[in-house]
Design brief:
The complex is a heterodimer of chains A (641) and B (129). Chain A is an alpha+beta fold. In chain A, 42% of the residues lie in helices and 24% in strands. Chain A has 19 helices and 24 strands. In chain A, a hairpin with a 3-residue loop joins strand 12 and strand 13 (493-501). The longest helix of chain A has 29 residues, at 291-319. Residues 1-8, 142-147, 149-156, 235-251 and 456-467 of chain A have low confidence and may be disordered. Chain B has one domain (3-127): Rossmann fold (3-Layer(aba) Sandwich). Chain B has five helices and five strands, in the order E-H-E-H-E-H-E-H-E-H. The two termini of chain B are 17 Å apart. The model of chain B has no long low-confidence stretch (mean pLDDT 88). Classes of the chains: A alpha+beta (641), B alpha/beta (129).
Chain lengths: 641, 129
């Protein structure tokens, strides 16, 4: 069993599980990056030494820390991967196509094992892959080592010997062996880094850097106690240990548990609420306070509001990670799938430096993987089919991300065969789903393929959607306050566009009222606000509708959903929600204003209700429910049938 | 300050931050001990230059400078020669046990390690200095 034995301090090491998962994630990212590069060297006469060293070390570390937390399947698997890497490194094996594939499969499984433990699921078996790795090592022809140092000789101008003497004062100023090395790596290639002891027993570091930089460039280092002189090229100085000098992460990075940041966000949220309360109180003082004094109060309150916004944005930035890491992971999945299916695929990435909230990215991982797998398995054609259609042989899958205001937009596009509407419609009929038959548009098509239980593929193809289906993709996106849309054209390809808020904890909202009760509607979900005359609604097949931009807009009465009375005034307001073609109007009595709200989940199952996403507090300490727009639109769709 | 009240500074060297935390927490049961950490061999030697170190817990397989070279460096210089070194390395490379002990490591432990055993070993080395 994969439970740590008590003599191993199993209980003790449980407290480090979060650190363990975080470090595993970091190494898996590095490993995937290295494997991608390594794949290009299959059959090549030489293999980049630094690449092998880095991979080896990542497996080695994963093995060590997995053993500590008692996850023996991960420990053993990492051990076998490490052993194969050692043989490659020592030149007693060569990297074959099957070896490269086994590495890729092994890494995927390693990740699955770690995730299974993280999610308390059964640990998958590793026997098949460890046997495979062992037999590959055993059958690999032994060749003399042909490993290439990453250093390229003679490509650079001169070599300098830089000497650095560390002191406590320098360390306090952030000048240390790591920062010096990083600076030297910026100006050239680090050939050597080694410690020496000077006459008086003083420790110093000698770096040899190959660089085109001149003396003037190096002179700026003098202030930090570095000395330098030009040296001749001496190949003998390239000792075994100095080749992989470029691997350490900068020491100035601090790792923080996401929960602590959540806590910080929660405190900021409370500050936002207190500030709102302060503003209300200041407003109520207006009449009894001298104007000058009141204005001062008001100004201070506004300053606090601005500072709070800055604080909130700073904390949000800390929670942000680059989406590039996720994209790289997708690239890896695409390689695997392409190899299995024999398709040729080029992955194009853009906007990888776009930042997204860590929580959002984790929730979006499975849905994005699903879309990517779908694109590869069903969207992109095999080489023969593409050739026959005069398309280039390689299918193109592009992943891009960009920010637009408070939203992040992720696109997954392929230039494959596009979604077959007729086939989707036929499946929908078979599944007994109702739909507008002819000329179904992209938005309606998306709604159909996201219906639970509808799969356009035969059983054998289900693989591609391991874990989640399109219905889950849509649900997750909507739960996160986002939207998904589709554009597809036969023979030309399919693009899914996902729009997400940058962060979840605090949102802009419209405060509306129905029957005297207030609700918050996330601003991001609202396309438009209309004022409607009560006389202009019509009833069609039991549904209330109004005309909107030359089309019909089904109305959803919030009062009816929550079984409340609504004011029968002459006019009411309608919030237009969702895509233009599939929009729904939410009828409310009144719009009270726009507020920044702090989103709280409702955890008590007794208080949970369909159509309610959470709760918030406004300044007057009364709880306001936040509407779940995804669920409300679902009501509208169901009502239509 | 009388010797018995001195706080011992333990330098924990490992490229895995999780592993460093595990080691440091394990040593938390010892009295009058504080820890410093380093993520590579070079960093470890920099720590030696900056502050007095009473004992090292050292991983072997690290980037930049292998643990064996750290042992070699420490043992070959007068000022650091007597610092006790506990090698704490991942199981599986048994040949390195003899090599590490021959190079001057005081004790050789493997990961996964038992926190109590590590604390006992470190504690006894500090007491017999």
């Amino acid at each position: 069993m994969d439970k740590p034995s008590p003599d191993n301090g199993g209980e003790f090491f449980h407290q480090f599980l979060d650190d363990y998962y975080a470090e595993c994630d970091e190494h898996l990212v590095l490993i995937r990056r290295a494997l991608g590069a390594l794949e290009d060297e299959v059959g090549a006469p030489t293999i980049d030494r630094a690449l092998l060293d880095n991979l080896f070390r990542s497996f080695h570390t994963l093995k060590g820390i997995s053993g500590m937390v008692g996850l023996s399947a991960a420990e053993q698997l990492a051990h076998h991967l490490e052993s194969y890497l050692r043989e490659l490194r020592e030149g007693s094996a060569t990297l074959s196509e099957s070896g490269s594939e086994a590495l890729a499969v092994g890494v995927s499984l390693l990740e699955a094992v770690i995730n299974a433990r993280r999610n308390d699921q059964p640990i998958p078996s590793i026997d098949e892959i460890t046997d495979r790795l062992q037999s590959i090592s055993a059958n690999s022809p032994s060749l003399p080592a042909q490993i290439e140092d990453s250093e390229t000789e003679g490509s650079t101008g001169g070599r300098w010997l830089v000497e650095f003497t560390p002191t406590a004062e320098l360390a306090e100023r952030g000048v240390n062996v790591n920062s010096v090395r990083a600076r030297l790596q910026e100006i050239g290639e680090l050939v050597q880094a080694k410690p020496v002891v000077k006459g008086a027993g003083e420790i110093a570091f000698e770096f040899i850097v190959a660089t085109d930089a001149d003396q003037a460039a190096l002179a700026s280092f003098e202030a930090d106690g570095l000395t330098f002189r030009r040296v001749a090229y001496e190949p003998a100085q390239r000792a075994r240990d100095t080749q992989a000098v470029a691997t350490l992460a900068p020491a100035s990075v601090v790792r923080v548990d996401l929960e602590r940041l959540d806590e910080l966000m929660r405190i900021i949220g409370e500050l936002v609420i207190s500030r709102t309360r302060l503003e209300d109180q200041i407003s109520s003082l207006k009449r009894e306070t001298p104007p000058a004094a009141w204005r001062l109060l008001q100004e201070t309150s506004l300053t606090i509001a601005r500072q709070l916004r800055d604080l909130r944005e700073s904390v949000m930035r800390v929670r942000m990670v680059q989406i590039g890491e996720v994209f790289e992971r997708m690239t890896f999945v695409v390689r695997d799938l392409a190899r299995e299916s024999g398709k040729k695929i080029i992955v194009q990435l853009s906007g990888g430096q776009t930042e997204i909230d860590k929580f959002l990215v984790e929730r979006m991982m499975e849905p994005l993987l699903h879309l990517v797998r779908n694109a590869v398995s069903h969207g992109l054609e095999a080489v023969a089919e593409r050739d026959a259609q005069g398309k280039r042989s390689e299918g193109v899958l592009s992943l891009s991300a960009a920010t637009a205001g408070e939203r992040i937009i992720i696109k997954i596009a392929d230039d494959g065969r596009g979604i077959d509407r007729n086939r989707v419609l036929a499946r929908a009929d078979a599944a007994g789903l109702e739909h507008a038959n002819a000329e179904i548009n992209d938005a309606a098509l998306l709604d159909l393929i996201c219906s639970p239980g509808l799969s356009t593929r035969e059983e054998a193809d289900r693989e591609s959607g391991r874990g989640v289906g399109m219905d889950v993709v849509k649900t997750v996106v909507e739960e996160l306050g986002g939207q998904i849309s589709l554009a597809t054209k036969r023979g030309e390809g399919t693009t899914f566009t996902i729009e997400l808020p940058l962060t979840l904890a605090i949102a802009e909202a419209l405060i509306v009222s129905v029957d005297g009760q207030r609700f918050a509607v996330p601003q991001s979900a609202v396309r438009e606000v209309l004022e409607v005359e009560s006389t202009s609604t019509k009833v069609l097949e039991n549904n209330e509708i109004i005309s909107y931009r030359g089309k019909v807009l089904p109305l959803l009465r919030l009062a009816r959903i929550f079984e409340m009375n609504h004011e029968r005034g002459e006019k009411f307001h309608v919030l237009v929600l969702g895509e233009e073609s599939n929009a729904v109007g939410l009828a409310v009595d009144r719009i009270l204003g726009q507020r920044e709200i702090v989103v709280r989940a409702i955890k008590d199952p007794l208080a949970q209700s369909k159509g309610i996403a959470g709760a918030t507090e406004l300044g007057d300490q009364r709880v306001v429910l936040i509407l779940d727009i995804g669920a409300l639109r679902q009501f509208a769709l169901e009502a239509r049938h | 300050m009388p010797e018995e009240l001195k706080t011992n500074n333990i330098l924990v060297v490992d490229d895995s931050p999780t592993m460093r935390r595990m080691v440091i927490t394990s040593l938390g049961s010892l009295r009058r001990v504080k820890s410093t950490q380093a993520g590579s061999g070079l960093e470890a030697i920099e720590r030696l230059a900056i502050e007095p170190v009473d004992l090292m817990v050292l991983d072997l397989n690290m980037p930049d400078m292998h643990g064996m070279e750290v042992i070699g460096f420490v043992r070959s210089h007068q000022a650091y020669r007597d610092i006790p070194i506990v090698v704490l390395t991942t199981k599986g490379e048994e040949s390195s046990r003899t090599e590490a002990l021959a190079a001057g490591a005081n004790r050789y432990l493997t990961k996964p390690f038992d926190p109590r055993q590590l604390a006992d070993v470190v504690g006894s080395l500090l007491n017999t200095r």
